[in-house]
Design a protein that fits this description.
Helices cover about 30% and strands about 10% of the residues. By secondary structure, it is of the alpha+beta class.
């Protein structure tokens, strides 16, 4: 059993190490193992591969700790965004507000594949990406409320999260604005001779902007 943000969940695994699908509002089943959601270990990055077809193709099998880390990240983002929507509806958060609900798996999967030296540049729907990168929910929520304790001291709001420490370079409010920023970061790493990369996230709307072409 484990508790996160006032809610108790039970994650269970079958003998093959697969998460048993949820029943009702809780994770339950004929479990042979219960794991703490907050358990962190080197097993989180353990990846095992084995042949699964006659053609010699391989499917990747991830550790239980990795599945738990993905779940924790997605769950934290969803609860953060639900609270954000509530506060926005109460007009406690002003201005634009773009939540990340429905995209949690993107942030969780992407972050687990990156190193801390790698960078991310993205557009304005970026609360979840920032949280997955390591920014605390406390400083992110403070930013939405315009407080000085926010990740950019309350001056950026919903669309302009930023953290040099976590190599998260926005949160950019203009469609396509993140593309030249991410490109510049990537070229800087190339000039320095590192193998660090910069993930620059954009959608089809930004793909036709002049900065891309």
């Amino acid at each position: 059993m484990t508790e996160l943000q006032g809610m108790t969940w039970r994650l269970t695994f079958d003998s093959g190490g697969e998460i048993i699908p949820p029943a009702g509002n809780r994770f339950a089943g004929k479990a042979d193992m219960n794991v703490s959601l907050h358990h962190k270990s080197s097993a989180m990055t353990q990846v095992l591969s084995k042949p699964t077809s006659s053609k010699g193709k391989k499917n990747t099998e991830y550790s239980k700790a990795m599945y738990l880390d993905w779940f924790e990240t997605m769950f934290r983002i969803r609860k953060f965004e639900e609270r954000t929507l509530m506060a926005y509806g109460q007009q406690k958060i002003r201005g634009f507000c773009h939540v990340y609900i429905g995209q949690e798996a993107i942030a969780a999967g992407m972050t687990s594949a990156l190193r801390k030296e790698d960078a991310i540049a993205t557009a304005y729907r970026q609360h979840g990406t920032a949280i997955s990168r390591g920014l605390s929910t406390k400083e992110c929520m403070a930013e939405l409320f315009g407080k000085a304790t926010g990740c950019v001291k309350g001056k950026g709001g919903s669309m302009h999260f930023f953290s040099r420490e976590h190599k998260f370079f926005g949160g950019n409010g203009i469609v396509g604005a993140q593309i030249p920023i991410g490109t510049g970061i990537a070229f800087a790493e190339k000039y320095k001779g590192t193998d660090n990369l910069c993930v620059t996230m954009f959608g089809d709307g930004a793909a036709r902007q002049g900065s891309t072409l």
